[in-house]
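<instruction>
Derive structure tokens from the sequence
<entry> Chain with its tokenised backbone below:
===
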Amino acid sequence: MKLSIDCLPCLLSQAATLAKWHLSEEDDQFALMNRVLKELLVVDRKSAPCAAQRIHRVLKEILGNPDPYREQKIYYNLEMLKLEEEFSKILAQAQDPLEQGLKLAAAGNIIDFGPQQELSSEKVLAIVQETLRKNLNPEVFEALKEKLAQSRLLLYLGDNAGEIVLDKLFIKEIKRTYKDLEIYFAVRGQPVLNDVTREDAYLVGMDRYARIIDNGDDAPGTVLERCSPEFLDIFQKADLIIAKGQGNFESLYEECEKDVFFIFLCKCNVFEEKLGVRRHDMVLMPSWHKRDPEHNPHVISSSWRD
């Protein structure tokens, strides 16, 4: 999905926020932003994650910090772990725990320091509760369950710290329902934004339910041409791929012929316009939707539960 002109203010906002977090002098902040602006002058339109990758490499170099969001990532991981028991009770009481697990995982996608700069635990919980009250599109959900039942190897592409706790609960339900399914959970190869790394995955205990691998790259998405051979081997062997977050959608949707289900919350006007959804709507879109868009509806939360 090509970089939209509407993504440029968001990329600049990320850089400005990071500059103010880590640099106390305004002259230093402006020097950093000048470097970012120079990067934007030569950025191509391949995808927003590719543009963000270039900018955040510059930011990390100037700051001398390979993981500028580490404190925020740890904070949200720990905050969501505090709520894990409460979320587990929600799943235990659900008529369909797998369906509820998917909703939780989608709701967790709000924890993002890209399009959303100001975020609190209260807002996260409010979005989770709002999402749980929405209906799923049964056709798309049944298609996902059918693919899971047919698969032997599932590759789950993670997105953000904090939300990974809800991914874990969803994966736990997948594992409980499809006992013979081998599951890999993929993280970024190096830190970028608040995207998950191995540190985050092990911190929240993801290794109890899936084998953790990294993709060997530091884009806030999955840019296949830049991923490691080890990751690409699992990617090609997977019978089914679940990809969380807008970044994974932007980098894979038009580039991948594998069977992929994209799960994310709509968090910006680019997706509102492109997909015809509303802010904070859940989206569950199969990769083959682009080949037959009328037959495969993609929005799974367009109506509220009575």
